[in-house]
């Protein structure tokens, strides 16, 4: 089994990965290669895989096969086992290769037009504009590498340093952007980063721009505060139109128990009430669980909003209900005690 896996890796998996991840590969190369590979998997003589010098499948060139070939020590061990158990290895390959062809056809057949495929499939690349298709990427490795780079930078700098991590990524590819090179050719960063290079000029221009923005009062914190102010005023107006905002826990209970509105309407109202309370609160941090609005990007249950809002209102509402008569009575008591 290990020998069969190694032979398939040598003749199929490694060349396939090389072809589909190469920056030089295009759909004009991939489409005929995939179609040819499918037919080869169905028709190839398994004994052609029992060697390590020539590619058993012709969907890739000899040069690519040599580039992806395992080390000589590994190839020698594979060949030794394949020769010793030639009958068993050949039999297993004869069973396995058609199954690989079937799986390949189910996965890629409709897209690339081979095997029992639907020729009219909307997602078939054979139906697409050839000129536009030639400019399209054949994989999303650039996007994955971008995400991986940012994750790596955040692991080094801290989870809240997204702007710094993003800036590091831009700087790492500055020379590509300057020279308008294709993705993948970003090896000249050090030259551009030296004194006299373009990157110091870009950074200097960036710093000047930031200073100008600060002079205009457009600091990040101020911009964020303006956004909060606008949201708070908008929420207040909305709540006033609804008869709010609530100022006592009893009002929340009355509203939840009322039958003149459905649960969806009540949920929307309490969501706004909690958000308004969070934006106006001074006694509790805005990160308090009482002000939680979402969980897993979804709104909380109606009762949760109600309980949290009542806790907050009870916290800020004084339990003492003192009238002027109570005050005068207290003052009279104090005066009488002092005269004794």
Helix tally equals 16
Q: Which shape, going by the Cα principal axes?
A: elongated
Q: What is the H/E order?
A: HHHHHHHHHHHHHHEEHH
Q: How is the largest sheet built, in terms of strand order?
A: 1-2
Which segments are poorly predicted (pLDDT under 50) over 5 or more consecutive residues?
Answer: none
Radius of gyration: 35 Å
Strand segment count: 2
The major pleated sheet works out as: 2 strands, antiparallel
Mean pLDDT: 80
Give the proportion of residues in helices: 55-70%
User: How many angstroms does the end-to-end distance come to?
Assistant: 106 Å
| Overall tally of structural domains | 3
Organism: Branchiostoma lanceolatum (Common lancelet)
Keywords: Signal
Signal peptide: 1-18
Protein name: Hypp2478 protein
Structural account:
The protein folds into three domains: 2-135, no CATH class; 141-215, no CATH class; 228-316, no CATH class. Strands 1-2 form a two-stranded antiparallel sheet. It has 16 helices and two strands. It has helices at residues 2-21, 27-43, 62-68, 72-84, 86-112, 130-135, 141-157, 162-172, 174-179, 189-193, 198-215, 220-241, 249-257, 263-280, 302-316, 324-339; strands spanning 294-295, 298-299. α2 (27-43) packs across α5 (86-112), α13 runs antiparallel to α15 and α14 (263-280) runs parallel beside α15 (302-316). A hairpin with a 2-residue loop joins β1 (294-295) and β2 (298-299). 17% of the residues are buried. It comes from Branchiostoma lanceolatum. This is Hypp2478 protein. Residues 1-18 form the signal peptide.
